[in-house]
Amino acid sequence: MSGSIYLDHNATTQAAPEVVAEMVAAMQRAWANPSSTHAPGQAAKRLLADARSRVANFLGAQASEVVFTSGATEANHMAVLGALAGSRGRLRRRLVLSSVEHPGLLALAQRLADEGVPVDRIRVDTQGRLDMDHARTLIRDDVSLVSVMGANNETGVCLPVAALAELAHAHGAWLHVDATQLAGKVALSFAASGADLMSVSAHKFAGPKGVGALLVRKGLPLVPLIAGRQERHRRGGTENLPGIAGFAAACELAGATLAADIERTRGLRERLEQGLLRGLPGAHLYGAQAERLPNTACLRFGELAAEPVLARLERAGVIASSGAACSAGGTQPSHVLLAMGESAEQARSGVRFSLGPDTTTADIDAALDAIQRALLPLLDPQPLAA
Ligand code: PMP
């Protein structure tokens, strides 16, 4: 990838050197089982407690509210299945999500629906904003859990967490927020959010893959997904201590520079968007009028399918991605863009550029130049004759 400009930070990020160093140190010096009562075990236990405090501090949670998991997919499963298990057999068993959730969560919801759990999806508008009027009709007293993402991974459009917390709580339901794309990109406080449950993942902000957390509001009687004694009986299995140490390091690094990163990244993203909209006829920016993550720009270029566009961009030295999933049966349109009212053709055309704290002005200018040279020959600058 050397020489390429990496604009796919919403997919994953490279672990920071400080993160790698803490992981190696944990493996070398705290390799014992943190549940063991002997001295090496107690040293590992202290490292785990220290990492838990650092993660909690960054996310505005209490240390006791942090349950370490293998990432956000597991945390999402834990929240949904744990909430429904607690209310099984009672009248409160409906699940409400948004129509733009992460594919892993949507697949789980589909499985539950097939098993007979009532599941509803809240609509979004053409900008990707959640339809709160629709939410008000769906969130009633039979709802167990409302589960929404804090920000969409494809478009960066933010969802109204505080308003949903109020609505869910007014009907006795819990709110779970998949904050995977918020953490490390915007200021985030579990305590202030009003959410009862929140998923995060370390690899989206310079931490390692395969580790994350579910934040569980103090006292919430969540049924564990994986039984066992660890994590105060909330998630069994020997803790991934190297991963957790790396997660804590990533939290601290992000916390130190977040405020400055937000402003700088937003400026660079606007520079990229303006350049693309001005320079490429037919370029369309998704969620332009919505509140969005500072680092994410999702566009289509006329109705050019994303797949060949991305291949051209990569050859030109720019790495981006698409929300459309490739499968053996061909490219599937993005469910997010379909939910925003796009046609199947348009929903196969979305290209996402996601910046990171290491993205520079020179990167953006070079990317703009490369993208224009790669795509201009494909786009007809002349409007079609009537
Ligand atoms: N939720 C969202 C919104 C995501 O963007 C992702 C990662 N693409 C996930 C969940 C899954 O996270 P993980 O890779 O930690 O399982």
Short summary:
By secondary structure, this protein is of the alpha/beta class.
Give Rg in angstroms: 22 Å
Tell me roughly what share of residues is in helical segments: 40-55%
End-to-end C-alpha gap: 45 Å
Please give the count of helices. Answer: 13
Number of strands: 14
Number of structurally distinct domains: 2
Low-confidence stretches: none
Mind explaining what this structure looks like?
With 386 residues, the chain is an alpha/beta fold. The chain has two domains: 5-11 and 258-379, Alpha-Beta Complex (Aspartate Aminotransferase, domain 1); 17-253, Type I PLP-dependent aspartate aminotransferase-like (Major domain) (Aspartate Aminotransferase, domain 2, 3-Layer(aba) Sandwich), CATH 3.40.640.10. The protein is 41% helix and 15% strand. It contains 13 helices and 14 strands. The chain has helices spanning 17-29, 39-59, 72-87, 103-114, 132-138, 161-170, 190-193, 230-233, 241-279, 306-315, 335-339, 344-347, 361-375, and strands at 5-6, 66-69, 94-98, 119-122, 143-149, 174-178, 197-201, 212-216, 283-285, 296-301, 318-319, 326-327, 330-331, 351-354. The strands form four sheets. The protein has a seven-stranded mixed β-sheet, with helices on both faces. Strands 9-10-14 form a three-stranded antiparallel β-sheet. Helix 7 links the parallel strand 6 (174-178) and strand 7. Helix 1 runs antiparallel to helix 9. The longest helix has 39 residues, at 241-279. The relative contact order is 0.16. The model has no long low-confidence stretch (mean pLDDT 95). The structure holds 4'-deoxy-4'-aminopyridoxal-5'-phosphate. 4'-deoxy-4'-aminopyridoxal-5'-phosphate binds at residues 71-73, 102, 104, 149, 153, 178, 180-181, 201, 212.
